[in-house]
């Protein structure tokens, strides 16, 4: 009998980069649990326990193994917000594109308003995001702030695209689907955070040019493929369709496990391409006359992309989010305890602790 567990499905993947875990992970775990409670995203002790079992701070500890404890705390808060926000759309809200747009635009506005808190009505999600935005951009170069805002806006607005997919008669073909999925996976803001942790901002022409733009796209694709393989049973349980395995199965008319194998092979080919581009990058930078200090920053950035790909794989095999416990947590219409945070009414300003 074929083993269809998440770990078995991930086993064929080849991501030959060494995983490293930031030693401040436990500190960030405790910090973010307090942060979530302060902003009203976790209330009851049972909700804290259910969230804590996901060990989301370890994903950031794999992504940013060299970040300072302070920066890792911020990254863990950012990642907690990602997942809490994402879980708002597992129910009926995720099938109502116009309502999704209203929720998303309330968050987008917090990146443009002045002052320590948004001027629009507060929810735990808008207040929490505004706190992350202010802390992340404090003292950051304008170039990086613009990049970070652009990527966040694209990520947030992809929720409408996902909602439309859930209500549509058919899914787009895989290559078209991936164009939207690269936004909805949220990898680009995480790559921006590599620069934030490292204290640098890559020049726009280098960031958007060959080969870094392609390497960023590959990084997003590999994270997508890992996530879509490991989360497949969870998404089948909630009736979601925004998964590259499901899209490929529909395209080819094949069985589910064959689609998994093909997505895993596609991921491996992307990783091979990434390694090829990385090998030629020093010569390309030298030929372009890139200054030594920027070349060193690019080297750190590429290392960070490797950390994101491998870190996603490591954490996906550790977390309870995708095991039988995690699937049961969202089956038969059950919502996570932190669902339904998208409307004003619950006190959202941070409580003093």
What does this protein look like?
The chain is an all-alpha fold and 353 residues long. The protein has a single domain, classed as Farnesyl Diphosphate Synthase. It has 17 helices and no strands. The longest helix has 32 residues, at 256-287. The protein is globular.
What would the keywords be for this entry?
353 residues, mainly alpha, Farnesyl Diphosphate Synthase, 66% helix, disordered C terminus
What is the N-to-C succession of helices and strands? HHHHHHHHHHHHHHHHH
CATH topology grouping: Farnesyl Diphosphate Synthase
Our Rg estimate from Cα atoms comes to 20 Å
- Report the CATH superfamily: Farnesyl Diphosphate Synthase
Q: Please give the CATH architecture.
A: Orthogonal Bundle
Spans where pLDDT lies below 50 across 5 or more residues:
347-353
CATH class: Mainly Alpha
Q: Which structural class is indicated by helix and strand composition?
A: mainly alpha
| C-alpha geometry | globular
Helix tally? 17
Strand content: under 5%
């Amino acid at each position: 009998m074929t083993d269809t567990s998440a770990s078995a499905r991930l086993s064929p993947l080849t991501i030959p980069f060494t995983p490293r875990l930031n030693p401040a992970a436990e500190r960030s775990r405790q910090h973010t649990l307090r942060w979530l409670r302060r902003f009203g995203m976790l209330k009851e002790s049972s909700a804290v326990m259910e969230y804590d079992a996901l060990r989301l701070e370890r994903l950031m500890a794999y992504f940013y193994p060299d970040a300072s404890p302070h920066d890792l705390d911020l990254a863990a808060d950012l990642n907690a917000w990602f997942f809490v926000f994402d879980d708002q759309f597992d129910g009926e809200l995720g099938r109502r594109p116009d309502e999704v747009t209203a929720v998303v635009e309330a968050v987008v506005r917090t990146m443009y308003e002045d002052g320590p808190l948004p001027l629009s009505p507060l929810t735990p999600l808008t207040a929490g995001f505004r706190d992350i935005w202010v802390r992340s951009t404090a003292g950051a170069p304008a170039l990086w702030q613009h990049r970070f805002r652009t990527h966040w806006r694209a990520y947030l607005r992809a929720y409408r695209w996902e909602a439309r997919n859930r209500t549509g008669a058919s899914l787009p073909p895989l290559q078209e689907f991936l164009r939207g999925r690269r936004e909805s996976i949220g990898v680009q803001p995480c790559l921006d955070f590599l620069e934030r942790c490292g204290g640098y901002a890559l020049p726009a022409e280098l960031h958007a040019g060959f080969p870094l733009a392609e390497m960023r796209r590959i990084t997003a694709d590999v994270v997508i493929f890992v996530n879509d393989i490991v989360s497949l049973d969870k998404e089948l349980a909630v009736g979601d369709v925004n998964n590259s395995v499901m899209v490929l199965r529909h395209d080819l008319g094949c069985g589910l496990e064959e689609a998994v194998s093909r997505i895993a092979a596609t991921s491996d080919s992307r990783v091979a391409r990434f390694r090829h581009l990385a090998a030629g990058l020093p010569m390309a930078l030298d030929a372009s006359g890139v200054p030594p200090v920027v070349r060193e920053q690019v080297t750190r950035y590429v290392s960070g992309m490797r950390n994101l790909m491998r870190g996603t794989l490591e954490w996906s095999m550790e977390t309870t989010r995708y095991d039988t416990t995690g699937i049961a947590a969202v089956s038969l219409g059950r919502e996570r305890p932190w669902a339904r945070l998208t409307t004003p009414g619950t006190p959202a300003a941070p409580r003093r602790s």
